[in-house]
Amino acid sequence: MSEIKVEPIEKYGLSAKSKPKSQFSTIGIVGCGNTGQRIALMVAGKGIEVVFLELSQAKIDQAFAEITEELDHQINHWGMTEGDKRSILSRIKGTLDYADFQNCDLVIESILSRTREESVDIRKEVFRNIEKHVSPHAIIATNSTTLVITELAAELEHKDRCISLHISTTAPEASIIEIVKGLHTSDEICEDVRRFAKLIGKTAIPVQESPGLVTARLAVSFISEACDVLMERVSDMESIDFSMRNGLGLPLGPFEMADKIGLDRVIRWMDNLYEEFGDYKYKPSPILKRLVRAGYLGRKTHKGFYEYDENGQKLKKNIIEASTEK
Checking phi first, is residue 278 left (phi over 0); if not, alpha (psi -120 to 50) or beta? Predict the structure, then answer.
């Protein structure tokens, strides 16, 4: 009689079988200000784990407070449930240590700096710190629109896995991600990032390496020209916005768009573009500079070209006319 072979049934159970790891199961973010928070929410909302790095525990706590406030705002407007909120928050973690990026499949640099020189130096250091702690297969990316990825990755050992991807946080509902292949970026990395874009419900738009990409470069030109038209008294501010919305079918006029982007951000983009191209059309308008000096940065401060209520709704009064009357 042949020997009966007995094997434990547990080894054939579903729970015992190893599940393949998703290519993008964990995403890292360096810098969790307004832009980093929007990216974190966008990614965590699709079921992906997020680890963000900040400079201090106070900044981590502030980021979580602002993320929670945004989720509560969505709940109040029937955009999600309390269960959705808890689920999203459970997938977001803060850290002070680059070592916590070791299991990340993609790390996105999303820091804020005031001048181009400062921005390049800081971002290069960030890239070096990321490379020290992630696996050789992890992707390192920047969300900057006005800096060139080839320059940022110049000092890294594995330049081929560096890429620029611009996720619009000004319009989170935007369905695109601009993807920029650097001089050394491999085709495989580009394809992986296209898969990531699809994973979070976006369409990848290939863009040649150029400061400003498509969206930022055209947006600042649009806003700058509108400021010139206003200064020349061709028309008043509200009429210009009305003309663009109803004449060309745009969702926002140039001044409304500037307020949504943030006037300080518009000026940073323009300064970087002027530094790169030397074209006078990228010099920030005196109107923009005057408002930023006054602390009127747009919707986020409730004052920009227009005034806004606590819910970000535009009020009838506009700042330009009010200052002119004085």
Answer: left
Instruction: Check: CB of residue 24 under 8 Å from CB of residue 106.
Output: yes
Measured distance CA(72)–CA(28) in Å, rounded: 24
276, 211 in Cβ contact below 8 A?
Answer: yes
Which residues partner with 109 through β-bridges? 30, 142
This prediction has a pTM of 0.83
Tens of pLDDT, residue by residue, the chain (326 residues)? 556 655 555 454 444 444 334 589 999 999 999 899 999 999 999 999 999 999 999 999 999 999 999 999 889 988 899 999 999 999 999 999 999 999 999 999 999 766 666 688 899 999 999 999 999 899 999 998 888 899 999 999 999 999 999 998 777 678 899 999 999 999 999 999 999 999 999 999 999 898 889 999 999 999 999 999 999 999 999 999 999 999 999 999 999 999 999 999 999 999 989 988 999 999 999 999 999 999 999 999 999 999 998 877 888 666 666 555 44
